[in-house]
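Possible regression after last week's pipeline update?

I re-ran a chain I had predicted before the update to compare outputs. Posting the input and the new output here so someone can diff against the archived version. Not blocking, just want to make sure nothing changed silently.
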Amino acid sequence: MSAVRVVIVDDSPFSIAVIRNILEENGFDVVGDAGTLEEVKEVIAATQPDLVTMDMTLPGTDGLECTRAVHAINPGIKVIVISSMMDDEILQEAKDNHVSGYIQKPVDAEDLLGTIQRVVAYDEMFKSLEDEYVEVFKETLKDGLNRMTKTLLTYKGEHELKSDFESRGIAVIVGIIGKFSGRLMIDLSKETAHALVTAMMKKEPTSTNEITAVLAEYTNIVAGNACSILNKKNKAFGLRLAPPSIMHGEKMLISQATFKTVSAVGDTEYGEVLLNVGFKRGEDKWT
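New output (post-update):
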């Protein structure tokens, strides 16, 4: 936590001094302070901190307007409100404005440090998931194919999916819920699907419904195995699966997710299989 860079927003020199002392005594790097909306904009743009402590009552503005200004500059900066006022309405407004934590004055060192630790831990948890999930899902897709057909899959590379794309013909999507939500999609042509399912079943499928049912189960296995691996790495993820959705047809346009997803195309002896997976950071829950 020693690397966390903090800006203090408060119009009281006394409050700034108290907060600064707590933070600096515990290894935080206080890179600036501000007492007005314009000062907030200037110091945030200049220092790009990791975290901001935010008073709610400021001359000519308030903490929520300043929070919006912070996030307009960098939505990744975490804001913790420190205010003498605390009631249900204010807390809800703070949550609606993507505040990461809320503590009441007079500032208690243990309360402040605990709130910051929770906020930082949440970010670190998502970063650990982000660093690993693509390779884990790629490996379970590859392993599942090998186990079910005794054939190999070779990846041709990966890229972030930044727009809608046209399906090859059949797409299976599995939603993921837990500490962080996400989705897995497997997309392939009807010809590849038919050949792949034939190899899995060791007989010709009798209908499109049978093909999609087998693919849905395969995708569910891939997603379930990957989530199990990730949950073993960190039980706090608590990842679980929603039932798969299946789409098939001509000229289907698959909508881009509202969060970052990564696609990897695998070559198999049955044809190409596209894997697309991603997780949403979301907002940490606090009361």
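Follow-up from reviewer: compared with the archived run. The chain has a mean pLDDT of 94. Marking as no regression found.
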